[in-house]
Design goal:
five-stranded mixed β-sheet; 381 residues; alpha/beta; binds NADP nicotinamide-adenine-dinucleotide phosphate
Protein backbone atom coordinates (compact mmCIF):
# COMPACT_ATOMS: atom_id res chain seq x y z
CA UNK A 1 0.00 0.00 0.00
CA UNK A 2 1.47 3.35 -1.02
CA UNK A 3 1.21 6.48 1.13
CA UNK A 4 0.25 10.04 0.22
CA UNK A 5 3.97 10.89 0.25
CA UNK A 6 4.69 8.11 -2.29
CA UNK A 7 2.14 9.49 -4.75
CA UNK A 8 3.34 13.03 -4.15
CA UNK A 9 6.92 11.88 -4.81
CA UNK A 10 5.74 10.54 -8.17
CA UNK A 11 3.93 13.82 -8.91
CA UNK A 12 7.21 15.64 -8.11
CA UNK A 13 9.12 13.42 -10.55
CA UNK A 14 6.61 14.31 -13.25
CA UNK A 15 6.71 18.02 -12.39
CA UNK A 16 10.50 18.04 -12.75
CA UNK A 17 10.16 17.12 -16.44
CA UNK A 18 8.89 20.64 -17.14
CA UNK A 19 12.15 22.16 -15.79
CA UNK A 20 13.18 25.13 -17.91
CA UNK A 21 10.33 24.67 -20.39
CA UNK A 22 7.44 26.02 -18.30
CA UNK A 23 9.05 29.24 -17.00
CA UNK A 24 7.85 31.69 -15.91
CA UNK A 25 5.05 29.31 -14.94
CA UNK A 26 5.57 26.86 -12.05
CA UNK A 27 6.55 23.23 -12.54
CA UNK A 28 3.58 21.06 -11.58
CA UNK A 29 2.88 17.33 -11.58
CA UNK A 30 -0.36 15.46 -10.90
CA UNK A 31 -1.21 11.82 -10.20
CA UNK A 32 -4.82 10.59 -10.02
CA UNK A 33 -5.32 7.51 -7.84
CA UNK A 34 -8.29 5.36 -6.81
CA UNK A 35 -8.20 2.25 -4.62
CA UNK A 36 -4.41 2.09 -4.85
CA UNK A 37 -4.42 2.22 -8.64
CA UNK A 38 -2.92 5.08 -10.64
CA UNK A 39 -5.61 6.14 -13.15
CA UNK A 40 -3.76 8.97 -14.88
CA UNK A 41 -0.64 11.12 -14.65
CA UNK A 42 0.26 14.50 -16.08
CA UNK A 43 2.64 17.43 -15.81
CA UNK A 44 2.89 20.95 -17.12
CA UNK A 45 5.10 20.35 -20.16
CA UNK A 46 5.81 23.86 -21.46
CA UNK A 47 4.67 27.44 -21.13
CA UNK A 48 1.17 27.91 -22.57
CA UNK A 49 0.40 24.15 -22.63
CA UNK A 50 -2.37 22.56 -20.50
CA UNK A 51 -1.69 22.35 -16.77
CA UNK A 52 -0.76 19.14 -14.95
CA UNK A 53 -4.27 18.44 -13.58
CA UNK A 54 -5.85 18.64 -17.04
CA UNK A 55 -3.10 16.48 -18.53
CA UNK A 56 -3.75 13.83 -15.85
CA UNK A 57 -7.52 13.98 -16.46
CA UNK A 58 -6.95 13.65 -20.22
CA UNK A 59 -4.78 10.59 -19.51
CA UNK A 60 -7.74 9.07 -17.60
CA UNK A 61 -10.06 9.89 -20.48
CA UNK A 62 -7.69 8.33 -23.03
CA UNK A 63 -7.60 5.17 -20.94
CA UNK A 64 -11.42 5.18 -20.83
CA UNK A 65 -11.43 5.66 -17.04
CA UNK A 66 -13.91 7.85 -15.15
CA UNK A 67 -11.92 9.45 -12.27
CA UNK A 68 -15.03 10.10 -10.15
CA UNK A 69 -14.29 9.49 -6.47
CA UNK A 70 -10.51 9.42 -7.01
CA UNK A 71 -7.76 11.34 -5.19
CA UNK A 72 -5.67 13.85 -7.15
CA UNK A 73 -2.11 14.45 -5.89
CA UNK A 74 -0.89 17.85 -7.08
CA UNK A 75 2.50 19.38 -6.27
CA UNK A 76 1.06 22.93 -6.28
CA UNK A 77 -2.33 24.32 -5.28
CA UNK A 78 -4.64 24.07 -8.35
CA UNK A 79 -5.19 27.43 -10.01
CA UNK A 80 -8.50 29.26 -9.72
CA UNK A 81 -8.09 31.82 -12.52
CA UNK A 82 -8.11 31.82 -16.30
CA UNK A 83 -4.72 32.57 -17.83
CA UNK A 84 -3.53 30.82 -20.96
CA UNK A 85 -5.56 27.86 -19.63
CA UNK A 86 -8.90 27.62 -17.78
CA UNK A 87 -8.88 27.05 -13.96
CA UNK A 88 -7.63 23.63 -12.89
CA UNK A 89 -9.86 23.43 -9.82
CA UNK A 90 -12.90 23.60 -12.13
CA UNK A 91 -11.57 20.64 -14.10
CA UNK A 92 -11.11 18.63 -10.88
CA UNK A 93 -14.61 19.57 -9.67
CA UNK A 94 -16.19 18.63 -13.03
CA UNK A 95 -14.30 15.31 -13.02
CA UNK A 96 -15.88 14.48 -9.62
CA UNK A 97 -12.68 13.73 -7.70
CA UNK A 98 -13.35 13.17 -4.01
CA UNK A 99 -10.04 14.35 -2.54
CA UNK A 100 -7.17 16.60 -3.56
CA UNK A 101 -3.75 16.35 -1.88
CA UNK A 102 -1.64 19.48 -2.32
CA UNK A 103 2.13 19.93 -1.89
CA UNK A 104 2.85 23.70 -2.04
CA UNK A 105 0.51 26.62 -1.50
CA UNK A 106 0.56 28.96 -4.52
CA UNK A 107 1.65 32.50 -3.52
CA UNK A 108 0.48 33.88 -6.88
CA UNK A 109 -2.04 36.58 -5.77
CA UNK A 110 -4.42 35.24 -8.45
CA UNK A 111 -4.48 31.87 -6.64
CA UNK A 112 -3.24 32.21 -2.99
CA UNK A 113 -5.77 29.91 -1.32
CA UNK A 114 -8.60 30.56 -3.77
CA UNK A 115 -8.05 27.23 -5.55
CA UNK A 116 -8.24 25.27 -2.29
CA UNK A 117 -11.27 27.28 -1.12
CA UNK A 118 -13.12 26.58 -4.36
CA UNK A 119 -12.42 22.83 -4.10
CA UNK A 120 -13.63 22.76 -0.49
CA UNK A 121 -16.71 24.77 -1.45
CA UNK A 122 -17.49 21.96 -3.91
CA UNK A 123 -17.29 19.46 -0.98
CA UNK A 124 -13.96 18.03 -2.08
CA UNK A 125 -11.65 17.05 0.79
CA UNK A 126 -8.35 18.91 0.51
CA UNK A 127 -5.20 17.91 2.43
CA UNK A 128 -2.35 20.41 2.24
CA UNK A 129 1.39 20.37 2.79
CA UNK A 130 2.31 16.80 1.80
CA UNK A 131 6.06 16.93 0.93
CA UNK A 132 5.80 20.71 1.10
CA UNK A 133 9.55 21.30 1.47
CA UNK A 134 10.36 19.29 -1.67
CA UNK A 135 7.49 20.86 -3.64
CA UNK A 136 8.55 24.37 -2.52
CA UNK A 137 12.17 23.69 -3.53
CA UNK A 138 11.11 22.69 -7.04
CA UNK A 139 9.40 26.04 -7.58
CA UNK A 140 11.84 28.27 -5.66
CA UNK A 141 12.37 30.51 -8.71
CA UNK A 142 8.64 30.76 -9.52
CA UNK A 143 7.76 31.73 -5.93
CA UNK A 144 10.44 34.42 -5.93
CA UNK A 145 9.41 35.75 -9.34
CA UNK A 146 5.66 35.82 -8.68
CA UNK A 147 6.10 37.65 -5.36
CA UNK A 148 8.85 40.14 -6.38
CA UNK A 149 8.54 40.51 -10.17
CA UNK A 150 12.29 39.83 -10.36
CA UNK A 151 14.21 36.71 -11.30
CA UNK A 152 15.82 34.57 -8.62
CA UNK A 153 19.51 35.49 -8.97
CA UNK A 154 21.80 32.53 -8.24
CA UNK A 155 25.55 33.12 -7.97
CA UNK A 156 27.39 30.01 -9.12
CA UNK A 157 31.15 29.65 -8.92
CA UNK A 158 33.80 26.98 -8.66
CA UNK A 159 36.72 27.62 -6.32
CA UNK A 160 39.75 25.88 -4.90
CA UNK A 161 40.23 25.06 -1.24
CA UNK A 162 42.31 28.26 -0.91
CA UNK A 163 39.39 30.35 -2.21
CA UNK A 164 40.53 31.01 -5.80
CA UNK A 165 38.31 31.03 -8.90
CA UNK A 166 41.26 31.38 -11.29
CA UNK A 167 45.06 31.16 -11.18
CA UNK A 168 47.28 34.24 -11.07
CA UNK A 169 47.25 34.20 -14.90
CA UNK A 170 43.41 34.18 -15.03
CA UNK A 171 43.09 30.53 -16.14
CA UNK A 172 40.18 28.69 -14.53
CA UNK A 173 39.57 25.55 -16.59
CA UNK A 174 38.89 23.26 -14.96
CA UNK A 175 38.57 23.66 -11.21
CA UNK A 176 35.92 21.01 -10.58
CA UNK A 177 35.57 17.45 -11.92
CA UNK A 178 33.08 15.83 -14.29
CA UNK A 179 30.35 15.14 -11.70
CA UNK A 180 30.20 18.76 -10.55
CA UNK A 181 30.24 20.04 -14.13
CA UNK A 182 27.42 17.62 -14.97
CA UNK A 183 25.35 19.11 -12.14
CA UNK A 184 26.01 22.61 -13.52
CA UNK A 185 24.55 21.57 -16.87
CA UNK A 186 21.45 20.12 -15.18
CA UNK A 187 20.95 23.40 -13.32
CA UNK A 188 21.47 25.42 -16.49
CA UNK A 189 18.72 23.37 -18.18
CA UNK A 190 16.27 24.40 -15.45
CA UNK A 191 17.21 28.10 -15.53
CA UNK A 192 15.62 30.78 -17.67
CA UNK A 193 18.93 32.58 -18.21
CA UNK A 194 22.69 32.52 -17.55
CA UNK A 195 24.51 35.80 -16.96
CA UNK A 196 28.22 36.60 -17.24
CA UNK A 197 30.27 39.77 -17.43
CA UNK A 198 32.34 40.57 -20.49
CA UNK A 199 35.49 39.76 -18.46
CA UNK A 200 34.52 36.07 -18.47
CA UNK A 201 33.76 36.16 -22.20
CA UNK A 202 37.19 37.68 -22.91
CA UNK A 203 39.02 35.26 -20.58
CA UNK A 204 37.23 31.98 -21.27
CA UNK A 205 35.12 32.38 -24.44
CA UNK A 206 32.38 30.16 -22.90
CA UNK A 207 29.48 28.68 -24.89
CA UNK A 208 27.13 28.72 -21.85
CA UNK A 209 24.95 26.05 -23.46
CA UNK A 210 23.49 22.96 -21.81
CA UNK A 211 25.43 19.87 -22.78
CA UNK A 212 24.93 16.23 -21.84
CA UNK A 213 21.32 16.62 -20.65
CA UNK A 214 18.83 14.84 -22.90
CA UNK A 215 15.98 16.99 -24.27
CA UNK A 216 17.28 19.99 -22.33
CA UNK A 217 15.89 23.48 -22.50
CA UNK A 218 18.58 26.02 -23.50
CA UNK A 219 18.48 29.12 -21.31
CA UNK A 220 19.00 32.62 -22.64
CA UNK A 221 22.67 33.67 -22.47
CA UNK A 222 23.20 37.21 -21.22
CA UNK A 223 26.42 39.26 -21.22
CA UNK A 224 26.84 42.40 -19.11
CA UNK A 225 29.03 44.40 -21.47
CA UNK A 226 28.91 48.17 -20.99
CA UNK A 227 31.15 49.05 -23.93
CA UNK A 228 30.29 46.23 -26.34
CA UNK A 229 33.64 44.49 -26.00
CA UNK A 230 32.23 41.00 -26.63
CA UNK A 231 34.16 39.76 -29.67
CA UNK A 232 32.04 39.09 -32.75
CA UNK A 233 34.15 35.94 -33.09
CA UNK A 234 33.23 34.68 -29.60
CA UNK A 235 31.35 31.40 -29.23
CA UNK A 236 28.37 33.30 -27.81
CA UNK A 237 28.00 35.57 -30.84
CA UNK A 238 28.80 32.85 -33.37
CA UNK A 239 26.01 30.62 -32.00
CA UNK A 240 23.47 33.40 -31.41
CA UNK A 241 21.23 32.24 -34.26
CA UNK A 242 20.91 28.84 -32.52
CA UNK A 243 20.60 29.92 -28.87
CA UNK A 244 19.01 33.11 -27.54
CA UNK A 245 21.73 35.62 -26.65
CA UNK A 246 21.28 39.04 -25.07
CA UNK A 247 24.08 41.59 -24.82
CA UNK A 248 23.33 44.27 -22.24
CA UNK A 249 25.36 47.40 -22.81
CA UNK A 250 25.40 51.08 -22.08
CA UNK A 251 25.83 52.28 -25.62
CA UNK A 252 22.93 53.34 -27.78
CA UNK A 253 25.13 54.01 -30.83
CA UNK A 254 23.33 51.90 -33.42
CA UNK A 255 26.42 51.41 -35.58
CA UNK A 256 28.07 49.61 -32.61
CA UNK A 257 25.00 47.45 -31.98
CA UNK A 258 24.14 46.48 -35.56
CA UNK A 259 26.86 43.79 -36.04
CA UNK A 260 25.64 41.96 -32.91
CA UNK A 261 22.03 42.12 -34.08
CA UNK A 262 23.02 40.87 -37.54
CA UNK A 263 24.78 37.95 -35.85
CA UNK A 264 21.48 37.03 -34.13
CA UNK A 265 22.03 38.64 -30.71
CA UNK A 266 19.48 40.83 -29.05
CA UNK A 267 20.94 44.04 -27.64
CA UNK A 268 19.56 45.93 -24.65
CA UNK A 269 21.00 49.39 -23.96
CA UNK A 270 20.55 50.75 -20.42
CA UNK A 271 21.67 54.19 -19.15
CA UNK A 272 25.04 53.62 -17.45
CA UNK A 273 25.84 54.21 -13.76
CA UNK A 274 27.96 57.24 -12.75
CA UNK A 275 31.02 54.94 -12.74
CA UNK A 276 30.18 53.80 -16.27
CA UNK A 277 28.80 50.29 -15.90
CA UNK A 278 25.55 48.53 -16.70
CA UNK A 279 23.12 49.43 -13.85
CA UNK A 280 22.53 46.08 -12.15
CA UNK A 281 19.24 46.75 -10.28
CA UNK A 282 17.73 48.07 -13.53
CA UNK A 283 19.07 45.04 -15.38
CA UNK A 284 17.46 42.63 -12.90
CA UNK A 285 14.18 44.59 -13.12
CA UNK A 286 14.30 44.53 -16.93
CA UNK A 287 14.83 40.76 -16.94
CA UNK A 288 11.84 40.32 -14.63
CA UNK A 289 9.68 42.46 -16.94
CA UNK A 290 10.65 40.11 -19.78
CA UNK A 291 9.31 37.17 -17.77
CA UNK A 292 12.74 35.77 -16.91
CA UNK A 293 12.13 34.05 -13.58
CA UNK A 294 15.63 32.73 -12.81
CA UNK A 295 19.20 33.73 -13.64
CA UNK A 296 22.34 31.76 -12.85
CA UNK A 297 25.28 34.15 -12.69
CA UNK A 298 28.37 32.34 -13.93
CA UNK A 299 30.44 35.49 -14.13
CA UNK A 300 33.77 36.33 -12.65
CA UNK A 301 34.60 38.19 -9.41
CA UNK A 302 33.92 41.71 -10.73
CA UNK A 303 30.29 41.08 -11.72
CA UNK A 304 29.58 38.78 -8.77
CA UNK A 305 31.13 41.29 -6.34
CA UNK A 306 29.05 44.14 -7.76
CA UNK A 307 25.86 42.07 -7.51
CA UNK A 308 26.76 41.14 -3.92
CA UNK A 309 27.45 44.76 -2.94
CA UNK A 310 24.05 45.71 -4.38
CA UNK A 311 22.37 42.87 -2.41
CA UNK A 312 21.12 41.37 -5.67
CA UNK A 313 22.30 37.78 -5.12
CA UNK A 314 19.43 35.67 -3.76
CA UNK A 315 21.14 32.31 -3.67
CA UNK A 316 24.67 30.90 -3.85
CA UNK A 317 25.92 27.66 -5.36
CA UNK A 318 29.60 27.35 -4.44
CA UNK A 319 31.53 24.38 -5.79
CA UNK A 320 34.59 23.64 -3.67
CA UNK A 321 37.39 21.57 -5.22
CA UNK A 322 40.15 19.90 -3.16
CA UNK A 323 42.86 21.88 -4.99
CA UNK A 324 45.13 24.81 -4.17
CA UNK A 325 46.14 27.59 -6.59
CA UNK A 326 47.93 30.01 -4.24
CA UNK A 327 49.01 33.43 -5.42
CA UNK A 328 48.13 36.78 -3.86
CA UNK A 329 46.83 38.06 -7.21
CA UNK A 330 44.75 34.97 -7.98
CA UNK A 331 41.12 36.10 -7.47
CA UNK A 332 38.45 34.88 -5.06
CA UNK A 333 34.80 34.63 -6.13
CA UNK A 334 33.63 38.10 -5.02
CA UNK A 335 35.49 41.35 -5.74
CA UNK A 336 33.61 44.65 -5.31
CA UNK A 337 33.60 46.54 -2.01
CA UNK A 338 32.63 43.76 0.39
CA UNK A 339 31.76 44.28 4.04
CA UNK A 340 33.96 46.01 6.64
CA UNK A 341 33.24 43.83 9.66
CA UNK A 342 32.52 40.11 10.01
CA UNK A 343 29.29 41.04 11.80
CA UNK A 344 28.09 42.68 8.56
CA UNK A 345 28.48 39.44 6.60
CA UNK A 346 25.79 37.86 4.50
CA UNK A 347 24.95 34.27 5.47
CA UNK A 348 23.47 31.26 3.76
CA UNK A 349 20.24 29.95 5.22
CA UNK A 350 18.77 26.54 4.46
CA UNK A 351 22.25 25.58 3.32
CA UNK A 352 22.75 22.15 1.80
CA UNK A 353 25.96 20.27 1.12
CA UNK A 354 26.30 17.71 -1.68
CA UNK A 355 29.36 15.61 -2.52
CA UNK A 356 29.96 15.42 -6.28
CA UNK A 357 32.97 13.20 -7.01
CA UNK A 358 35.91 14.82 -5.23
CA UNK A 359 34.13 18.19 -5.08
CA UNK A 360 31.56 19.62 -2.68
CA UNK A 361 28.60 21.84 -3.57
CA UNK A 362 27.42 24.21 -0.84
CA UNK A 363 24.21 26.02 -1.72
CA UNK A 364 21.68 28.13 0.11
CA UNK A 365 19.65 31.33 0.20
CA UNK A 366 21.48 34.57 0.99
CA UNK A 367 20.44 36.66 3.99
CA UNK A 368 22.07 40.10 4.09
CA UNK A 369 22.83 41.96 7.29
CA UNK A 370 21.56 45.51 7.14
CA UNK A 371 23.62 48.16 8.91
CA UNK A 372 24.56 51.75 8.30
CA UNK A 373 28.02 51.00 7.02
CA UNK A 374 27.11 48.16 4.74
CA UNK A 375 23.95 49.39 3.10
CA UNK A 376 23.57 48.40 -0.57
CA UNK A 377 25.84 50.62 -2.65
CA UNK A 378 26.19 51.29 -6.33
CA UNK A 379 28.41 48.75 -8.05
CA UNK A 380 32.10 49.52 -8.46
CA UNK A 381 34.55 47.64 -10.60
N1 LIG B 1 35.83 29.67 -11.29
C1 LIG B 1 34.72 30.23 -11.69
O1 LIG B 1 33.62 29.84 -11.28
C2 LIG B 1 34.80 31.35 -12.70
C3 LIG B 1 33.63 31.74 -13.37
C4 LIG B 1 33.69 32.80 -14.27
C5 LIG B 1 34.91 33.43 -14.49
N2 LIG B 1 36.01 33.01 -13.85
C6 LIG B 1 37.31 33.67 -14.07
O2 LIG B 1 37.14 35.04 -13.71
C7 LIG B 1 37.99 35.83 -14.53
C8 LIG B 1 37.17 36.93 -15.18
O3 LIG B 1 36.78 37.78 -14.16
P1 LIG B 1 36.02 39.13 -14.34
O4 LIG B 1 35.68 39.58 -12.97
O5 LIG B 1 36.77 40.04 -15.25
O6 LIG B 1 34.71 38.67 -15.17
P2 LIG B 1 33.20 39.13 -15.08
O7 LIG B 1 32.84 39.50 -13.69
O8 LIG B 1 32.40 38.05 -15.72
O9 LIG B 1 33.14 40.42 -15.99
C9 LIG B 1 33.47 41.68 -15.46
C10 LIG B 1 33.06 42.76 -16.39
O10 LIG B 1 31.65 42.89 -16.45
C11 LIG B 1 31.37 44.20 -16.92
N3 LIG B 1 30.28 44.83 -16.23
C12 LIG B 1 29.26 45.50 -16.81
N4 LIG B 1 28.49 46.08 -15.90
C13 LIG B 1 29.01 45.78 -14.70
C14 LIG B 1 28.67 46.14 -13.37
N5 LIG B 1 27.60 46.90 -13.09
N6 LIG B 1 29.44 45.71 -12.38
C15 LIG B 1 30.53 44.94 -12.61
N7 LIG B 1 30.91 44.57 -13.85
C16 LIG B 1 30.16 44.99 -14.89
C17 LIG B 1 32.61 45.05 -16.63
O11 LIG B 1 33.16 45.52 -17.83
P3 LIG B 1 32.43 46.73 -18.63
O12 LIG B 1 31.84 47.64 -17.61
O13 LIG B 1 33.49 47.35 -19.43
O14 LIG B 1 31.42 46.08 -19.46
C18 LIG B 1 33.55 44.11 -15.94
O15 LIG B 1 34.89 44.29 -16.24
C19 LIG B 1 38.64 34.90 -15.53
O16 LIG B 1 39.90 34.56 -15.05
C20 LIG B 1 37.74 33.70 -15.50
O17 LIG B 1 38.42 32.53 -15.88
C21 LIG B 1 35.99 31.99 -12.96
Amino acid sequence: MFSDADYMARALELAARGGGWVAPNPQVGCVIVRDGQVLGEGWHTCYGAPHAEREALVACERAGIDPAGATAYVTLEPCAHTGKQPPCCDALIEAGVARVVVGSADPNPLVAGKGIARLRHADIRVDEGVMRAECDALNRAFFHFITTGRPLVVAKYAMTLDGKVATRTGASRWITGADARGRVHEDRARAAAILVGVGTVLADDPALTVRGVEGAHQPMRIVCDTHMRTPLTSQLVRTAHEHPTLIVGGASDTTRLAPYEQAGCEVLALPVTPDDHVPLPQLVDALGKRGISSVIVEGGPVLLGALFDAHLIDRVQAYLAPKLFGGASAPGPLAGRGVAEPSACASLVNAQTTALGDDILIEGDVRYTSGNEDEPCSPVS
